[in-house]
Design brief:
GO terms for molecular function: DNA binding; DNA-binding transcription factor activity. With about 130 residues, the protein is mainly alpha-helical. About 65% of the residues lie in helices and about 5% in strands. A two-stranded antiparallel ribbon has the order 1-2. It is flat, with a radius of gyration of 22 Å.
Length: about 130
């Protein structure tokens, strides 16, 4: 698929897709006319990249963990230095804390919505008559 279709299907700008390619997060074949041609699998890949970026991971870390997003996995252990592993563990722990915070916030919103709906229901029932 061409870059425009990938952009549309993932909600990612063409400029950002070119940046992902520059950062070696995705790769395109080139048609004879020079147009980029992306494999179908890049729809999910781009969505995963966006999720990881939204979680705060930098592209250099995402590039290292991309093999874990693919099946079959091809992991380059030589790149897994003790420093890289420590960085990934720190990022994972930070994500876990963020997930916990987001879950608490979601639960608070649910409780608020439940309370508002419970208070509105009797008032709306009284005006329906």
């Amino acid at each position: 698929m061409r870059i425009g279709e990938l952009s549309e299907r993932t909600g990612t700008s063409r400029r950002l897709l070119r940046y992902y390619e520059e950062q070696q997060l995705i790769a395109a074949d080139r048609a004879p006319n020079g147009y980029r041609d992306y494999d179908e699998r890049y729809v999910d890949r781009v969505l995963q990249i966006r999720g990881l970026l939204d979680a705060g991971l930098p592209t250099r870390i995402i590039r290292q963990i991309l093999p874990c997003l693919d099946q079959p996995r091809v992991i380059h252990f030589s790149e897994a230095t003790p420093e890289m592993l420590a960085t990934l563990e720190d990022e994972r722990d930070r994500m876990t804390r963020r997930i916990a915070c987001l879950s608490r916030n979601r639960d608070a919103l649910d409780a608020y919505l439940d309370e508002v709906r419970a208070k509105r229901a009797p008032a709306e029932a009284g005006t329906a008559n």
